[in-house]
Structure formats: structure tokens, C-alpha cells
């Protein structure tokens, strides 16, 4: 099987390890991974702040980058949700306003071919035990767009449960938002920081060494807050845990 | 539209919310109350195996009714009139206020008792009546607390949610006497004593009042029947004892017939008070010769609702049955409190309803669509499946880009709200850079080369991030550079990951 990695701009720029982990993991599972270099940002910051028309060139680029791919895999619940939920709306909006055409059809068409990493593993490859080894105590924070827009359900937890050496600690109030919310984090900084501090304290109370997510933008907020609170707990992307093996501990 | 900056104008949401976040008593009150009711609601909803079907039915009934609202409103008017009621149409808050004031004046009374009602909060009816020399007494316990405390409601269902027992005791002790029967001597903060003090104070109002003002949860078009659901019984008192009843109801409260009501009488109590069935359901159809009010007036309120109805994305907000489940799960509401939303409708539903009813012309109204992290918890619990995050994003577009909208019944193209020029430029610049991978890559490499020099705290707008959060460390190499170096153009498998990718915790 051949897939294309949609690494996301946040991972590309700030968390390349997560992209490397996805490549390592998928290749270990016998999947051939391509990285279309034409890809960039999916446009979520623009779209969610109200700049729908500014999103169109980015959606168009994204659809072009992944035009011939049957499985686009991304290590971000939020970016996957952006493509799946909002790309068809962007296409429909452009068409309704007279800017439609083949590009808009391509934008809508990439949505159903897009998989968040845990969806691809559990639903397409049908694996939950990926042969990972991660000798650490971990708590899991289900990030909102994966949880509610994609409906990831227990897929990440099933994958984590099968990891050898990993001790999973329950996170109290796990399904409460961490307060990142893209531009919300700076537009409503006080509320965002208060939500982040509550989440960080809940993470610290578990005694875990690391807080696992499927979204590094949320992890950047939680991790940055943990650092400010003087905590040693570090955020880790699920892909990095799953990439880790006894022969190659991440 | 010209907006005047006055001291009366509420501040934009972020400033008001920041003040609330710094108030530890408020934070504790809200956290305790919202978490308690959140858990109870989840249990009450989990009892029903057909909740998803009920929710879909609720949404479908509301959508159908809204689509044919013109027809159902006329049917309602005909039925109410046939049953002895009088129907008045109010295009906006001012007209509704005038109608109600004239109706009360015509009775010769100077006092009215009130059933808890969001529509009358929305049109600020108590203040309008006060200007006409008419005193309105709130009879819902929480509304009484708010009125005695010269405060504003901060929650749809629990208007005094921001108060704790000790604060309520103090308000009762100090203020009750000014409005009527004083609080008993030695009143403590025990819930039973507080409720008894309110009961004694209110009883005097119920027995004296000749005019009552209510809203309604539902209006059944088929028979012209109005429905109020409540927990305390104060509503039943107001709806049955006075001679004149005036009900002010938003036009979207219409349901076609009694079978539709069945769905909502299951959805509403479980979503709002987490009860299987609310203790009091009052229904009345016009007037009756031997019982209840002799005169009944129904004031049908538009006040921006037909404008919302004209918006294909925003109109679903009119499905709202005011259960407040979205407030109770909202992490932003929990920290900001209800007052920060600057309207009768706080929380997620307020953030999508207020900018549609009032427009986006004031700082607070333009800031409301941004009062959300888009976490989606509100949509998940909404008993009529209002996709609040989707409407928020839609209204954000209206704020920053303007566009077509309906204002007071006319199609107009509204201008972007002021104060977004810098943001628009930044968004455009970011989009341009992201649409030119060469530029993006150059930026990534520059950031990587200078990464040892990056400050821990940023000046200017960046402070909004770094005041509470450390910046992530910039890695030595971006993913695309790693891929290029290890896999080359062909994307062939090569060496493993780089030894130093500079994770945030490195």
C-alpha cells in the first residue's frame, strides 16, 4: 500500500520528529510513504478566524498536492477535520459565489480520501498492536477536533493500550478543551491561559511523565503551559510512541 | 450604522472575560455549578436509548416550523384569538416595550409579577416598565436574587449561578426589606432557609398582583396553546392568580401541534435541569370564564429573528429551546462567566444568537463569535443539534469580511467590523508565504539558524502567547528539509531521523 503524508505546517516547522515518526511507523507496517513537496498549510488558521476566501488558494494547493492519492494520512486530528469537514464547504461556497470550477471540485474530492493517523491504522490497516515499545508513564488528552469532529472514539487509546512498557494513567476531565483553539489562544489569551493551566494541572496530577495527543498545536499550548508552571512533564505525539520499538526507543 | 462609545456600552468579550478570570470566587462558583449540572445532565440523557432520534426529531420539527413560520404564526394568531386572547405583533424591542407598557397602563395597575422569561430580559422590559412608573417583581428564585442584588443574570437557566449561598444570604438580609417582606431574623445560608425566605417574600406579591407578565417555552399553533415549563411553581402562581396575563414570546417558539410538543417535553428537562420531567408544566389556551386570567395578551416578538431566519447557516440558532446545556459544558463560559457576553443570552448560544439578533456593530457583539475555542462540546450536547462552531466561524467571516446579511428585514451588504486591519494583513501575508513553499522554507531555515537567539518571552502582540506559555524550541531542521536530505527527490527510503531535531523539551 502507498500513502501520502500530509505532515501539516506545524509539524513541518516545529515538530519534524512527529513526521519522522509517522514515516518510521508506516514503513515498519509495510506501507510505502510519499511526501508531496507541494503541500503547505491546510488553511485552518485563516478559515477558523473568518478569512474563508484567504483559505481558497491554500485549499487549492492542498488538493493539487494530493490529487492522485487514494490515502492521505496526517498526524493531526485538527487538520484532518479541517480537510474533511470544511473543504467541501469551501468548495461549495466558492461555487455559490461564482469562483467554482475544477479546482473547487478537487478541493471537495480530497476530503473523503483524508485519514487521521489513528483512523488509517485502525480502520484501513486494521491494526491496534503496531509492535511498539515505550517504557514510560503516559496520560492521554483527546484533542477536541479529533474527538468531536472526526469522532476518533477509542482508536488512540486502543493503540496506546497495545504498546509494551507503557503505563497509561487516566486524565481527569480528559474531554475538556485545553484552551488552544488556534487564534483563540491570543485573541482570548486570559481564558485560553486559564483553560491551559487547568489542563496542565490535571496532567501533572496524574503523575505521568508525558502527555500524549494526536495534535501538536494543542500539545504546544499544553507543553508551553507546563513549562511555565515549572513542570517536567513533556508533550509527546502518539506517532512518536507508536514509532518507538525495543530496538529503536524514541 | 453609527455606534456611540458610551460608558453604558459593554466592553468587548476578551476584556470582560479577563476580569472574570481574575476573580477567584466567581471562578469557584461557576466551576462548582457547571460541573455539577454537567454530570447530572449526562446521566439523565444516558437513560434514554432513543436520545439521538429525539434530538434529530427536535431539530427536524424546528427546521420545518421555521421554514413555514409565516403559515404557523397566522394559524397561531387565529387560534389564540378564537380562544379569547389578543395577539400583538412587535417588530423590535422598542415596539414590544411600548405594547406591554400600554397594556399594563390600561389596567390601571402599577405593579406586575413576572414569570422567568428570556424574551423579556432580551428586550429589557423591567427597565422599560420602571421608566413608566411600573414595578416588575421577578418571582423565580434566581431572578429574585439577581433583582434584589441589582445585578444582571449570568445564565439562561440559573441566572444567579455566579452567586454562592453566603452571597445570597447577604443579599436577602440586606435587600429584601426594601422590596417587601424582609428576610427572617437570623437567616442562615442553608438552602431550605433561603428558599423559605423567598417563599414568604414572594407569597405577598402573588396574592396582591393583578397583572402578570410571562414568556413561553412553546406555542402550539394548532390550538393556540402556550406552554411554560418550570421547577418552582412560581410560574403557575403568576399564570393563574392575576386578572390580566401578558405573554411576550419570540416568534421561533412556535411548534405546529401537540405531537411535536411531546418531543420537546422530553428534550428540554433532561438537557436543562437534568430532570426526567420538570415539576410544573403550565398550559393555557386563551381565557376561560371560571378560572385563571380574564384577559390574555400575546405579544409576538421578532427583534432580529427574521434577519437570522434569512441566513442559511445562522438560522439553525432559532431552533434553540433555551435549555442552557451548552453553557454548562462550555469551558469558556465556565471561566468567563455570563456577564462577559454582554447580553441576556450568554455562553455558546449567546455567542451565535446575539450577533444575529443585534448585529455585529458594537465591540462586544463583534467579539462574541470569537468567544470560543471551537471545541465543539456545545454542539455535542445541544438537544436540537445546533452546529454552534459552524455558526461561530460563519459569523467570524461576517465580522472580518462583511458580506450579505438581512438587517431589519432588508437585504444589505455589511462592511467589515473595524479593528481587524492588522489581522487581515497578517492573515493575507501568512497565506501568501504558505502558498509559496520557497518562502516558507526560507523562513524555516532562517528560524532554525537563529534558534539559539530566540527569546523566551515575546514583546508586542506575541506577549499574548508567552505570558502564560513557553515557546516551542525551533528544530535544527524542518521536516521537509529532513525528507529532502534523507529521501531526495525520488522519495526513496534513506537514513533515519536526524539526531537533533530539537523537540520542545530539548
From TrEMBL, chain A:
<dbReference type="Pfam" id="PF02754">
    <property type="entry name" value="CCG"/>
</dbReference>
<dbReference type="GO" id="GO:0005829">
    <property type="term" value="C:cytosol"/>
</dbReference>
<dbReference type="InterPro" id="IPR004017">
    <property type="entry name" value="Cys_rich_dom"/>
</dbReference>
<feature type="domain" description="Cysteine-rich">
    <location>
        <begin position="3"/>
        <end position="83"/>
    </location>
</feature>
<feature type="domain" description="Cysteine-rich">
    <location>
        <begin position="138"/>
        <end position="222"/>
    </location>
</feature>
<dbReference type="GO" id="GO:0016491">
    <property type="term" value="F:oxidoreductase activity"/>
</dbReference>
<protein>
    <submittedName>
        <fullName>(Fe-S)-binding protein</fullName>
    </submittedName>
</protein>
Amino acid at each position: 500500500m502507498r500513502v501520502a503524508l500530509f505532515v501539516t505546517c506545524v509539524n513541518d516547522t516545529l515538530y519534524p520528529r512527529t513526521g519522522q515518526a509517522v514515516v518510521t511507523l508506516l514503513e515498519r507496517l509495510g506501507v510505502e510513504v510519499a511526501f508531496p513537496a507541494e503541500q503547505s498549510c491546510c488553511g485552518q488558521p485563516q478559515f477558523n478566524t473568518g478569512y474563508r476566501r484567504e483559505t481558497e488558494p491554500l485549499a487549492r494547493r492542498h488538493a493539487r498536492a494530493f490529487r492522485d492519492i487514494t490515502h492521505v494520512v496526517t498526524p493531526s486530528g485538527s487538520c484532518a477535520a479541517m480537510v474533511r469537514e470544511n473543504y467541501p464547504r469551501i468548495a461549495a461556497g466558492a461555487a455559490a459565489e461564482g469562483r467554482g470550477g475544477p479546482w473547487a471540485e478537487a478541493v471537495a474530492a480530497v476530503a473523503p480520501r483524508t485519514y487521521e493517523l489513528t483512523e488509517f491504522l485502525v480502520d484501513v490497516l486494521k491494526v491496534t498492536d503496531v509492535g511498539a515499545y515505550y517504557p514510560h508513564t503516559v496520560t492521554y488528552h483527546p484533542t477536541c477536533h479529533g474527538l468531536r469532529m472526526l469522532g476518533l472514539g477509542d482508536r488512540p487509546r486502543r493503540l496506546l493500550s497495545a504498546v509494551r512498557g507503557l503505563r497509561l494513567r487516566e486524565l481527569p476531565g480528559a474531554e475538556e478543551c485545553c484552551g488552544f483553539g488556534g487564534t483563540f489562544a491570543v485573541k482570548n489569551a486570559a481564558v485560553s491561559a486559564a483553560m491551559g493551566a487547568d489542563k496542565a494541572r490535571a496532567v501533572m496530577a496524574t503523575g505521568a511523565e508525558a502527555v500524549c495527543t494526536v495534535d501538536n498545536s494543542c500539545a504546544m499550548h499544553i507543553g508551553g503551559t507546563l513549562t511555565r508552571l515549572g513542570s517536567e512533564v513533556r508533550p509527546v505525539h502518539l506517532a512518536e510512541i507508536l514509532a518507538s520499538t525495543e530496538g529503536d526507543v524514541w | 450604522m453609527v455606534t456611540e462609545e458610551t460608558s453604558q456600552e459593554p466592553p468587548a468579550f476578551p476584556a470582560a472575560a479577563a476580569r472574570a478570570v481574575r476573580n477567584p470566587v466567581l471562578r469557584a462558583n461557576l466551576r462548582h455549578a457547571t460541573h455539577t449540572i454537567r454530570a447530572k445532565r449526562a446521566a439523565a440523557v444516558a437513560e434514554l436509548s432513543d436520545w439521538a432520534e429525539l434530538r434529530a426529531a427536535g431539530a427536524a420539527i424546528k427546521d420545518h416550523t421555521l421554514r413555514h413560520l409565516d403559515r404557523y404564526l397566522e394559524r397561531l394568531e387565529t387560534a389564540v384569538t378564537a380562544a379569547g386572547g389578543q395577539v400583538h405583533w412587535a417588530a423590535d424591542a422598542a415596539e414590544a416595550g411600548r405594547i406591554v407598557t400600554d397594556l399594563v397602563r390600561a389596567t390601571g395597575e402599577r405593579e406586575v409579577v413576572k414569570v422567568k422569561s428570556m424574551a423579556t430580559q432580551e428586550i429589557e422590559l423591567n427597565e422599560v416598565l420602571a421608566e413608566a412608573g411600573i414595578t416588575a417583581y421577578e418571582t423565580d428564585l434566581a431572578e429574585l436574587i439577581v433583582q434584589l442584588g441589582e445585578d444582571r443574570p449570568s445564565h439562561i437557566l440559573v441566572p444567579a449561578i455566579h452567586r454562592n449561598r453566603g452571597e445570597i444570604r447577604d443579599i436577602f438580609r440586606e435587600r429584601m426589606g426594601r422590596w417587601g417582606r424582609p428576610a427572617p431574623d437570623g437567616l442562615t445560608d442553608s438552602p431550605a432557609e433561603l428558599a423559605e425566605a423567598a417563599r414568604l417574600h414572594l407569597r405577598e406579591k402573588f396574592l396582591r398582583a393583578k397583572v402578570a407578565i410571562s414568556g413561553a417555552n412553546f406555542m402550539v399553533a394548532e390550538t393556540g396553546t402556550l406552554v411554560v415549563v418550570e421547577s418552582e411553581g412560581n410560574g403557575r402562581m403568576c399564570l393563574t392568580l392575576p386578572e390580566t396575563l401578558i405573554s411576550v414570546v419570540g416568534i421561533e417558539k412556535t411548534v405546529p401541534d401537540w405531537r411535536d410538543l411531546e418531543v420537546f417535553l422530553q428534550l428540554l428537562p433532561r438537557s436543562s435541569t437534568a430532570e426526567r420531567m420538570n415539576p410544573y408544566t403550565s398550559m393555557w389556551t386563551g381565557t376561560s370564564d371560571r378560572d385563571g386570567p380574564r384577559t390574555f395578551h400575546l405579544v409576538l416578538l421578532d427583534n432580529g429573528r427574521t434577519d437570522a431566519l434569512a441566513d442559511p447557516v445562522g438560522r439553525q440558532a432559532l431552533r434553540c429551546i433555551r435549555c442552557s446545556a451548552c453553557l454548562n459544558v462550555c469551558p469558556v463560559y465556565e471561566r468567563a462567566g455570563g456577564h462577559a457576553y454582554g447580553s441576556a443570552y450568554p455562553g455558546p448560544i449567546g455567542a451565535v444568537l446575539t450577533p444575529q439578533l443585534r448585529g455585529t456593530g458594537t465591540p462586544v457583539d463583534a467579539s462574541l463569535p470569537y468567544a470560543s475555542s471551537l471545541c465543539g462540546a456545545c454542539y455535542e450536547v445541544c438537544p436540537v443539534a445546533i452546529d454552534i462552531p459552524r455558526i461561530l466561524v460563519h459569523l467570524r467571516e461576517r465580522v472580518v469580511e462583511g458580506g450579505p446579511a438581512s438587517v431589519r428585514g432588508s437585504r444589505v451588504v455589511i462592511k467589515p467590523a473595524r479593528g481587524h486591519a492588522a489581522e487581515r494583513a497578517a492573515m493575507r501575508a501568512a497565506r501568501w508565504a504558505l502558498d509559496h513553499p520557497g518562502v516558507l522554507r526560507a523562513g524555516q531555515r532562517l528560524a532554525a539558524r537563529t534558534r539559539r537567539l530566540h527569546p523566551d518571552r515575546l514583546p508586542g502582540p506575541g506577549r499574548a502567547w508567552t505570558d502564560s506559555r513557553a515557546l516551542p524550541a525551533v528544530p535544527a531542521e524542518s521536516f521537509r528539509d529532513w525528507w529532502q536530505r534523507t529521501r531526495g527527490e525520488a522519495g526513496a527510503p534513506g537514513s533515519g531521523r536526524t539526531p537533533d531535531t530539537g523537540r520542545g523539551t530539548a
